[in-house]
């Protein structure tokens, strides 16, 4: 993923960040530190898990601190 994005508020550089889920005893959400997303109408699978459609990447502005999240669709689709 390119980090050459600029902040929509102040036009400073944006850098990659990891989101840490504190509700799980400081474990990263996944092995690579990314969140997953599903569509609202997804049904639970056989083991009760909701299948992910892709991941959520996160960037933070190096100047003003704005955090931007965006979806990265799974290549399976």
Return Rg in Å. Answer: 15 Å
What structural class is derived from the secondary structure elements?
mainly beta
Write down the secondary-structure element order.
Answer: EEEE
Low-confidence stretches: none
Q: Please, how many helices?
A: 0
Mean pLDDT, rounded to whole units?
80
Q: Portion of residues in helices?
A: under 10%
The count of DSSP E runs of length 2 or more, i.e. the number of strands, is 4
Oligomer kind: single chain
The main β sheet shows up as:
4 strands, antiparallel
Estimate the global geometry from the Cα principal axes.
Answer: elongated
Quote the distance from N terminus to C terminus. 20 Å
How much of the sequence is in beta strands? 25-35%
Descriptive report:
By secondary structure, the chain is mainly β. It is 0% helix and 27% strand. It is built from no helices and 4 strands. The chain has strands at residues 14-16, 35-37, 54-61, 67-73. Strands 1, 2, 3 and 4 form a 4-stranded antiparallel sheet that branches. Strand 3 (54-61) and strand 4 form a beta hairpin.
């Amino acid at each position: 993923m390119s980090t050459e994005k600029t902040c929509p508020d102040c036009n400073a550089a944006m850098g990659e960040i990891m989101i840490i889920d504190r509700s799980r005893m400081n474990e990263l959400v996944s092995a690579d530190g990314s969140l997953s997303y599903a569509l609202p109408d997804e049904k639970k699978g056989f083991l009760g898990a909701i299948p992910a459609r892709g991941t959520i990447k996160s960037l933070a502005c190096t100047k003003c601190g704005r955090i931007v999240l965006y979806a990265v669709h799974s290549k399976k689709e």
